[in-house]
Each structure stands twice: as structure tokens, then as C-alpha cells.
Amino acid sequence: MTPVIALVGRPNVGKSTLFNQMTRSRDALVADFPGLTRDRKYGEGNYEGQRFIVIDTGGLTGDEEGIDLEMARQSLQAVEEATVVLFLVDGRAGLTAGDEMIADHLRKIGKKAHLVVNKTDGQDPDVAAADFYRLGFESTYLIAAAHNRGVRSMLEELLPPTDEDVESDTASRYPGIRIGIVGRPNVGKSTLVNRMLGEERVVVYDMPGTTRDSVYIPYERQGKEYTLIDTAGVRRRKNVREVVEKFSIIKTLQAIEDAHVVILVIDAREGLVDQDLHLIGFVLDAGRSLIIAVNKWDGMDPEDRDRVKEQVQRRLDFLDYADKHYISALHGSGVGVMYESVSKCYESAMAKWQTNRLTAILQDAISQHQPPMVHGRRIKLRYAHQGGSNPPIIVVHGNQTDSLPGAYKRYLENTFRRVLKVTGTPIRFEFKSGDNPFAGKVDRLTPRQKVKKDNDMRQGRRTKKVRMKSKKR
User: Fold this and answer.
1) In the CATH hierarchy, which fold is given to the domain comprising 355-433?
2) Annotated binding site, which residues?
3) Superfamily of domain 4-158
4) CA–CA separation, 419 vs 333, rounded Å?
5) What angle is formed at CA 299 by the lines to CA 298 and CA 303, rounded to 5 degrees?
6) What is the CA radius of gyration of the chain?
7) Tens of pLDDT, residues 311-361
8) Which residues are annotated as a binding site for GTP?
9) 202-232, pLDDT tens digit by residue?
10) pTM of the full predicted structure?
11) What SS3 class is residue 118?
12) What pLDDT score does 457 carry?
């Protein structure tokens, strides 16, 4: 499961600055005065292939009133839901009563937290952290978030080195193909889950936000094991008001990470909206297989159906490899055939290919359309092998691969997808260039080569003089 990291501390200790460094963004506002962050902000980070979610919270002081009291409640709620808590303190200001209050609260709720001493730049880090050791935290990290010092080493210790242990644990708890059902609120996700299960397993009600948490439902169908994941609807951030709904969004993002295949449910009556595209982007960034299910197809006029199909085809032209189903979860029409798409997506995501086959496809693609020239030299792609599954990763070795244009990369992706018959899942390519064996070596000429070079240069000068004289005449 994707780790959730909550950043807590007094106002103006650098939580938003650290948030931006961890997510490699500028999503959180940063200014040199306290109380700028009032609402919680969520972001996604990635360190050495390990994805995680970060929560930036408002500052805690201990004497909150009015709006500050609501900010404090949200910050403490973030602590409850997080898997990792980072307690930030200001290394320049030293230990304060507010820091001690927050430390006492973390101890009372039994939440294991890590102490992070920020703003240690320009001074001895050990001296800056000396006052804070009395708080009794087992692990302490000394960083300068504004300059990104110490952040990478901190993440290296906090996050698991690989996803293998997490994946094996999830696979043992929920065997078979894991299918995540995602979409905006009230598009019929829970109804679809009940229809695929053949029973009223989850609550269905005509009100947005009925599902608050992700529900994992293992079952068996025609001798195959599946796990359906019913998730909460994800609305636009400006429309999210309730505290519970904000953490439901985290659960939905974690469910996408856990799934093998994701079914995005779209409301045919409302058509494709921007929030659907945002969800598609997150699924593709996670590398998960994707199926589009346009729900509430029953009772629509033929003109409206044609309009929706044209809109889906036009706006999702970049998803030509993903299956699209027009269904009615309420009446069951078109639901059963989605299992065929699920099986094809899972087989494509988990496929294993031999190196000689991938290399042969690469060479055939090059013979049909060679890579471009860069600085007078042709880019060479020598061989390919598989680097991982779910999503499939193909590693291509050659020289000058950093200069390979995006259009040629898309050409290779389309070629491999067509030949390997990959359905529904994105293919990721990694291009690696070998070291130049002649780098750093001096080109030494033999005496015979030097004589030839001098003769060629003299002959070139004579030819140039003859041409100059002929032009003057």
C-alpha cells in the first residue's frame, strides 16, 4: 500500500517548503509568515520508484481559536490517517512550548513520529538540534528544506527500498486479479460492483459520497479468483469540503496502486468531464491497465448516444489501446463482456517476453524507419530486453539515446504494442546509452599517417588558392 506521510509542526517551520521538495512541485504556497497554509494539501511523490502521498497541514500552536481551531483539527486528523508522521521543528528558533505540546500529543495518541529539524543551513546541524533531543524521539533528521539538503537521505530511510514486500503482502491477502472501480461520485461504481458480484454487497444510494472507504471484495468466477475494489468518488479539489472525503481520496489513490486493472466509470448522461481526464492521468502515471466503462447507457436517445460516443472517441484518442464499454450497471447490459477485457489487460500487464524476441522486434522497427541523425551521427539502437511487469517495461540499449526524439519513441511504443498484442496497459520504455570506449583517449597518429595528413592539408591549400585565382579572373 502506498505510504502516506503527514507533515505537522508549528507555523512557519517549513512544512510547505518540504512538501514542495518531496513532491517536486510548487503546489504549496510558501512565504515568510505564519498561518499561510490553512487547509490540508495532498501531493504525490516518487523516490527511487517508491511512490508515496504527502499531506501538508496547517501549523499547530496550542491556543487555537476560530479558524485556527479548525486548522488544528484537520492537522490532527491527518496524523491519525498517516502511516508516517514527520514532526518539523525550526532549528533556528530552538525548542519552544508549542513544540513540546505537539510532541506530548503525538505520544498520547501512540503515533510513532520522526523528528525533523529544519533550517539547519548556515549553522552547525548538531548544535541546531541539541535542544530537541530532550523530546525523546528515536529518529531525528537534520535537513534544510529550502536547499533540499538531507531530504533524499531522509526519504531513503523512511521508505521501503522496493515494492516487492508490499506487493507480496497485498497478493497474499487479495489473490487473483485485482480490479479497481474508480470514478466521480454518483456515476454508479457501487452498482457496478454489485452487478459484477451478482449480489447486493455494497451500499447503493442516489446521493454522492455514499462510499467513504475503499472496499476489497475477494470472490471467484468461473474458477478464477478476483478481488473487486470499490472506491470513493473523487471530486474536484475545490468541491471537497468534508474531512472524511479528503481521506477517502487517499484511499482511492492507494486502491489504484493496489489494482492490476482499473475500470474508470463515466456517467453517460453528463458525458466526459475534466475530472475524468485527471483520474485517467493518475491511472496512467501509476502504470495500471485501464478500461473505460460508460455507465447509465439505458434509456438514452440514439442522438445522445452518438454524441457521447463521438466525445469519448475524440477526447480519448490517446487511449486507442484501451477497451471502451457502454453499459448499464443497473440492468446489467454490457457488464459481463468486461471480464474478457479484464483478462486481456491482466495478461498484457503481467506478460513475460524473451530478450531475443524483443530485440528482433526492435531491429525490424529500425529497418522500417531508422532513428534520426544527431550531430552528423546516426542514433544506434542495438538490443532490447524486459525490465519489469505491471506495467511492462522495455529497456532499449544503444548510443545517443538521450537525443532520441519523442516521435520516434512513440513509433517504437506503437510498434511493440501492435506486434506483442498489448491491450489496455501502458508500455514504459527506458533508453540506456553505453559508455564510449574511446572517451578520454588521445588519437595518436603513426609517422606514415602524419605524412599523409600533411600532404592532404597542403593539397587542400593549393586547391583553395587555384579557386581564388579563377574567381578573380
Assistant:
1) GMP Synthetase; Chain A, domain 3 (3.30.300)
2) 9-16, 56-60, 118-121, 183-190, 230-234, 295-298
3) P-loop containing nucleotide triphosphate hydrolases (3.40.50.300)
4) 32
5) 105
6) 29
7) 999 999 989 899 999 999 888 889 889 999 999 999 999 999 999 999 999
8) 9-16, 56-60, 118-121, 183-190, 230-234, 295-298
9) 444 344 444 445 678 888 888 888 888 888 7
10) 0.61
11) strand
12) 87
